């Protein structure tokens, strides 16, 4: 592995911290190198806020100037306006690594490619091209002003990171969440650390809807809100043959939430669907699940309940949430 790959791997790892939390935007990471020293490592964190490249450039500015910012760095308009005030050669000794081609279009945020073209870093290293027609063209914009560009560093890993974004352009991206012990048991109350629960609630806050099975509603009587983050609760779809649910359980009393019940699921609409459930739900949806997210707590238990499923997984990324091991996998 050469040095460029090492730097890009760090940008990719940073982006994974916010995987799916940027919906409907892709997860993107960026790193700034100055005289062989990493001076910024950032990732896009939420749709409508500053992109990874902008956050990284702001951190690089703080390092080079020894000054703090007097505005909200996540306000993309203010961030771009500030960076445009810098001299065009301010980052001339910097190389920026980014996991996705800088955007050339103007949407909820200004164009990152145009900003980089103005600031003229020494070099821009890109993992993979933007696959969305109309969003591409960033490289051309950079090369037009003489910036050196290198493309294809860690591209396989970058495309894995990008896969949910590509899927929800065409249809629903379906993520199945599992919390279990180290020996694969799922019964016996909460199994996840506070950090894992917070992460789940962050995903709930941005998903298009949550999908759960009827047995989960009847037996667990869940709330399924976002109390660990303080954000609005997701809409819920209950997959069940019969509508015989107790409307007094917390699930139905969350304000500004829509709860629907159906025995026929449609995954054709572009969206992000988060599924929580047991083995029955997993087997029912097995052909529709794209990714699996596991939170594995460091505990062994004799509880009999587990996932009685047969499926082969491809591991994509792992991290820790508190004491838990977090595994992202592809079906």
TrEMBL record:
| This protein's UniProt keywords | Hydrolase, Oxidoreductase
Query: Could you tell me the Gene Ontology terms of the biological process aspect for this record?
Result: riboflavin biosynthetic process
Positions of the CMP/dCMP-type deaminase domain: 2-150
* Coiled coil feature spans: none
For this protein, the record's SUPFAM superfamilies field holds: Cytidine deaminase-like, Dihydrofolate reductase-like
One example of the protein's molecular function in GO is: diaminohydroxyphosphoribosylaminopyrimidine deaminase activity
Q: Does the keyword Hydrolase apply?
A: yes
As recorded in UniProt, its EC number(s) are 1.1.1.193, 3.5.4.26
**Source organism, top-level taxon:** Bacteria
Instruction: Please provide an example of a Pfam family that matches this protein in its UniProt record.
Output: dCMP_cyt_deam_1
Copy the pathway line from the protein's UniProt record. Cofactor biosynthesis; riboflavin biosynthesis
Name of this protein: Diaminohydroxyphosphoribosylaminopyrimidine deaminase uracil reductase (EC))
Instruction: Tell me what organism the protein belongs to.
Output: uncultured Sulfurovum sp
């Amino acid at each position: 592995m050469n040095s460029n790959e090492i730097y890009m791997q760090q940008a990719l790892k940073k982006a994974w911290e916010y995987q799916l939390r940027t919906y409907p935007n892709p997860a993107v990471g960026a790193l700034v190198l100055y005289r062989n020293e990493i001076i910024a490592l950032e990732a896009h964190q939420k749709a409508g806020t500053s992109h990874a490249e902008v956050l990284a450039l702001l951190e690089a500015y703080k390092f080079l100037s020894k000054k703090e910012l007097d505005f909200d760095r996540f306000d993309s308009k203010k961030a771009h306006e500030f960076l445009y005030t810098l001299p065009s050669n301010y980052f001339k000794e910097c190389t920026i690594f980014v996991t996705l081609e800088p955007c050339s279009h103007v949407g909820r945020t200004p164009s990152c490619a145009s900003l980089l073209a103005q600031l003229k870093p020494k070099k821009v290293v890109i993992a993979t091209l933007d696959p969305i027609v109309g969003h591409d063209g960033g490289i051309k914009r950079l090369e037009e002003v003489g910036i050196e560009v290198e493309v294809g560093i860690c591209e396989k890993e970058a495309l894995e990171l990008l896969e949910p974004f590509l899927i929800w352009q065409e249809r629903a991206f379906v993520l199945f969440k599992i919390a279990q012990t180290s020996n694969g048991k799922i019964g016996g109350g909460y199994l996840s650390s506070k950090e894992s629960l917070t992460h789940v609630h962050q995903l709930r806050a941005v998903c298009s809807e949550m999908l759960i099975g009827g047995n989960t509603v009847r037996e667990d009587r869940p709330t399924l809100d976002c109390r660990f983050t303080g954000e609005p609760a997701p809409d819920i779809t209950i997959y069940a043959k019969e509508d015989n649910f107790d409307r007094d359980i917390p699930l139905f009393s969350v304000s500004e939430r829509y709860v629907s019940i159906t025995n026929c699921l449609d995954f054709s609409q572009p969206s992000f669907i988060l599924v929580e459930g047991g083995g029955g739900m997993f087997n029912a949806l097995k052909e529709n699940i794209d990714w699996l997210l596991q939170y594995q707590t460091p505990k062994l238990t004799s509880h009999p309940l587990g996932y009685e499923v047969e499926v082969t997984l491809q591991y994509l990324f792992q991290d820790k949430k508190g004491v838990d091991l977090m595994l992202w996998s592809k079906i």
